[in-house]
Specification:
nine-stranded parallel β-sheet; ten-stranded mixed β-sheet; TIM Barrel; alpha/beta; 20 helices; Immunoglobulin-like; single chain; Rossmann fold; globular; about 20% strand; about 700 residues; 3 domains
C-alpha cells in the first residue's frame, strides 16, 4: 500500500497540489493556472473527478481535446497528474435515459439527477456506462507522461434500497450463508416471526413500522461496503488492462460510516484520505491527529496521502469559519508528522459558480494577491525543505482498537442507551492520549492481518462487537506480556449483533478478571466514582455503567452512589505475563487535571507499560517521524517546547546520541541549532522540525 506512494515521492518529493477542474474555465485561464502552480511549488494535481459530462456530452460522443491540451500544459510545466475516472457524478443523460440508474432511499423515494453521486451502485446501466468512460479515458491516456497515478471514482459512500439492490443483497447473502436455514439462524428470525421461506422475500432494511432486525441491518452495511468496493474494483480492472504499472487509488473519508475501509485497504495502491477539521472546535487538533492515526493504520504503519483538505473555509457546515494561513500550515505539517507524504487540497482554483463556490481554494476568487495564496506558496517552499522525511516511519508504541462492524452495531436502535456514541468515546480517549503526548495507531481488533505484539499498550475504548478470533488475539497479547485497557459496553455482542451468553464481556472476562450481569444507564448528572487507594480524587461516571463483580481483579474504583453503588468501576488484573485494565463506565475527564478521571487511568496504564509521556504545555504536540522531532503549537498563545521531555519519547538511537555525545538538534525549517537540554519558545501556531546534527 505504501509502495505506490513511494514511487511518486522518490521522484517528486513531498506531494503538493490539489483537485484541478479546468473544464470550468476558459483555456486562457489554464496557462495562468500552470504558471501559478509552478510558483507555488505544486507538483501533483488531480484532474477529471467531475468531468464526465464534459468528456461524454452524449452517449458514445467523446470530447477529449480539452483534456489533451491540459495534460500537455501540466506535463510541460513538470506537474504530475492523478487522473480520475469521472464516475462519481454521472451526466444528466444517464439518469434521463435510464431512470433505473437513480438511487432510492429507504422510504422508497427515487432521487433525481442534477446534483452529484446520483447513481444506484447496483444499476447495470450505471456500471456499463462507468466502465465505458473509464475504458475510453484509460486507453487514451495510459501512456501519457503526465499521468503518474489513477484516481477511481471519488469518496465512495452511496447507498440505495431499490429492487436491483435487493437482488444483489440476496446474491451477497447466498454467498455468505449458503442456505436459507443458515441465514434464518444467523439473523435469529424466530424473533418477531421473521423466518424466511424464499430468498425473494428478503429485502434491504427499508422503512418499517418499528425496529428492523439488527442482524439484517448489520449485513446490509457490510453488503453496501462490498458493493461499492466492487465498483472500485471494476474501475481498477479497466485501468489495469491499459496501465499495469501506475498506482490506482480512491479517496477515503476518515471516520465515515458508509464503507469499511479495512476491507478496501488491500485494493488501494495508495491510502488516500480526505480531512476537513472544524476550525471552530477546540478539539480540532486532537481529532485531526486521530484521523491521521487511522490513515497510517490503514497503511500498515507506513506512509499515506492527504487527498483533500481546505485551504481556508468549507461551504457545507452551518457556520463556516475560515482558518488563517498559519493554522493551515500547522494542519499540513501535523499530517506530515504523522506519516503523510503529500498535501493536496480541494481545490486549486476557487469556483465562481455551482454549489461549492464558497469553498476555499489554493487560489481564491480574489486572486493571487491574497493571504490564503501567499500562505499556500510559503507552505510549498517549506515542504521542499522537508523532503528528507518522505517514507520515514512514525514512532509509536500504543494502539487504539477500532473497527467498523463494532461501530455499526453499537449505533443501532433499541440499546440500553442511545447516548453512548462509540465514536465520541474513541475521540474522548484519544484526546486524553493526545494531551499526554502519546502517538497511536488506529487498528482493528477483528482482522488477523494486524499484529498487536509490536505495541506496548493496546486500548479498546468502544469494542462493542468481539468475536472469538479477536478475543483470542487479545488474550494471547496480554498473556504474552502486553497491556490492555478495556472500555465500557465492550465485548457485548458477536458479529451478527447477537448478545454473548453469560456474564459480560463473555469472551474476555477471564483476561479482565471482572464480569458484569447487566448494563445500567446512569441518571443525568452521572454517578460518583471513588478510588480505593485514597490518593485519587473522586471521579464521575456518566451515561452507562455495568453491574459488576471482581472475579480476581484488583478493584481500583467503585461507584459511590446511584444504581451501581458498590459495583466495580475500574479494576486491574494480571493475566499471564501481562496486565489488563477494566474501565466499566464512561469515565469523565477531570478538568482540574486530577487523577480521578479517565486521564488518571490512562496515565497509570502508560506508566505500567513503560510508555513515556511526551506531554508539553497544553496544545503543544510532539511527534517523532524517523529521527526528526516535529513540535507544533496549536494554540493562539506563545508556548514552550521542553526538549528533554520530547526526547524521552523518541527513538533510542537519537536518545543515545544525545546522551553520549551531547549532539545538538537542528531545525530543518530555519537551520537554527539547539542544545538538547534547551527549552524553545514557540510562537502561536508555530512549528519546528528538529533532527540531530550528524558529523
Amino acid at each position: 500500500m505504501t509502495a505506490g506512494l513511494a514511487r511518486l515521492t522518490d521522484e517528486l518529493g513531498l506531494l503538493y497540489g490539489g483537485d484541478y477542474n479546468p473544464e470550468q474555465w476558459d483555456p486562457a485561464v489554464w496557462r495562468e493556472d500552470v504558471a501559478l502552480m509552478r510558483e507555488a511549488g505544486v507538483n501533483l494535481v488531480t484532474v477529471g473527478v467531475f468531468s464526465w459530462s464534459h468528456l461524454e456530452p452524449r452517449p458514445g460522443e467523446y470530447r477529449f481535446g480539452w483534456l489533451d491540451e491540459v495534460l500537455g500544459l501540466l506535463h510541460d510545466a513538470g506537474i504530475a497528474v492523478d487522473l480520475a475516472t469521472p464516475v462519481a457524478s454521472p451526466p444528466p443523460w444517464l439518469g434521463h435515459r435510464h431512470p433505473e440508474s437513480l438511487p432510492t432511499t429507504a422510504d422508497g423515494t427515487v432521487l433525481s439527477y442534477g446534483s452529484r453521486n446520483q447513481f444506484c451502485p447496483s444499476s447495470d446501466a450505471y456500471r456499463a456506462a462507468a466502465a465505458t468512460i473509464a475504458e475510453q479515458l484509460t486507453a487514451r491516456y495510459a501512456g501519457h507522461p503526465a499521468v503518474r497515478m489513477w484516481h477511481a471514482g471519488n469518496e465512495y459512500g452511496q447507498v440505495c434500497f431499490c429492487d436491483r439492490c435487493a437482488e444483489r443483497f440476496r446474491d451477497w447473502l447466498r454467498a455468505r450463508y449458503g442456505t436459507l436455514d443458515a441465514l434464518n439462524a444467523a439473523w435469529a428470525t424466530t424473533v418477531w416471526s421473521q423466518e424466511y421461506g424464499d430468498w425473494a422475500e428478503i429485502l434491504p432494511p427499508r422503512v418499517a413500522p418499528y425496529h428492523r432486525n439488527p442482524s439484517q441491518e448489520l449485513d446490509f452495511r457490510r453488503f453496501g461496503s462490498d458493493l461499492l468496493l466492487g465498483l472500485y474494483r471494476e474501475q481498477k480492472a479497466v485501468i489495469r488492462r491499459h496501465d499495469p504499472d501506475r498506482p490506482v487509488t480512491t479517496n477515503l473519508m476518515g471516520f465515515f460510516g458508509g464503507i469499511d475501509p479495512h476491507e478496501w485497504r488491500a485494493d488501494l495502491d495508495v491510502i488516500a484520505d480526505d480531512a476537513y477539521p472544524d476550525p471552530a472546535s477546540p478539539d480540532a487538533p486532537a481529532d485531526a491527529a486521530l484521523v491521521n492515526h487511522l490513515a497510517r493504520g490503514l497503511a500498515g504503519g507506513g506512509s499515506w496521502l492527504r487527498m483533500e483538505q481546505a485551504a481556508s473555509a468549507v461551504s457545507w457546515r452551518e457556520h463556516n469559519l475560515t482558518k488563517s494561513p498559519v493554522r493551515l500550515r500547522t494542519e499540513v505539517l501535523q499530517a506530515l508528522a504523522h506519516g503523510c507524504d503529500g498535501a493536496l487540497f480541494f481545490q486549486w482554483r476557487q469556483a465562481r459558480s455551482g454549489p461549492e463556490r464558497f469553498h476555499s481554494a489554493m487560489l481564491p476568487v480574489a486572486g493571487a494577491d491574497t493571504a490564503v495564496h501567499q500562505g499556500v506558496r510559503a507552505l510549498g517552499a517549506e515542504l521542499r525543505a522537508l523532503r528528507g522525511l518522505v517514507g520515514e516511519p512514525v514512532h509509536r508504541r500504543v494502539a487504539l482498537l477500532w473497527d467498523w462492524t463494532s461501530w455499526w452495531a453499537a449505533g443501532q436502535v433499541a440499546l440500553p442507551t442511545a447516548r453512548l456514541d462509540p465514536l465520541a468515546t474513541l475521540r474522548a480517549w484519544h484526546r486524553e492520549l493526545w494531551r499526554l503526548g502519546v502517538v497511536v495507531d488506529v487498528v482493528p481488533a477483528d482482522r488477523d492481518d494486524v499484529a498487536l505484539d509490536g505495541y506496548d499498550l493496546v486500548l479498546a475504548p468502544a469494542q462493542y462487537v468481539l468475536d472469538g478470533a479477536a478475543a483470542a488475539r487479545l488474550d494471547a497479547y496480554v498473556a504474552g506480556g502486553g497491556h490492555l485497557v478495556w472500555g465500557p459496553f465492550g465485548g457485548v455482542a458477536d458479529g451478527l449483533s447477537h448478545l454473548h451468553a453469560g456474564r459480560s464481556p463473555a469472551p474476555l472476562r477471564h483476561v479482565l478478571g471482572v464480569s458484569a450481569e447487566e448494563w445500567v444507564p446512569l441518571p443525568d448528572g452521572g454517578s460518583t466514582v471513588v478510588w480505593s487507594d485514597g490518593r485519587h480524587g473522586p471521579g464521575t461516571a456518566s451515561t452507562l455503567g455495568e453491574r459488576t463483580r471482581s472475579d480476581g481483579a484488583d478493584v481500583l474504583a467503585t461507584y459511590d452512589d446511584g444504581p451501581l453503588a458498590g459495583c466495580v468501576a475500574v479494576a486491574h488484573h494480571r493475566h499471564g505475563e501481562g496486565r489488563a485494565w477494566y474501565v466499566g463506565a464512561d469515565l469523565a475527564v477531570c478538568e482540574d487535571g486530577s487523577d480521578g478521571g479517565l486521564g488518571g487511568v490512562l496515565r497509570a496504564a502508560l506508566d505500567e507499560a513503560g510508555v513515556s509521556s511526551g506531554a508539553q504545555a497544553p496544545g503543544v504536540e510532539t511527534v517523532w517521524r524517523g529521527d526528526a522531532l516535529v513540535a507544533i503549537n496549536h494554540t493562539d498563545r506563545p508556548a514552550a517546547l521542553v526538549l528533554g521531555a520530547a526526547l524521552a519519547t523518541g527513538p533510542a538511537a537519537v536518545r543515545d546520541a544525545v546522551a553520549r555525545d551531547g549532539t545538538p538538534l537542528a531545525d530543518l525549517l530555519t537551520g537554527a541549532r539547539h542544545d538538547a537540554s534547551a527549552t524553545l519558545p514557540l510562537a502561536p501556531h508555530d512549528v519546528v522540525v528538529l533532527t540531530t546534527v550528524r558529523p
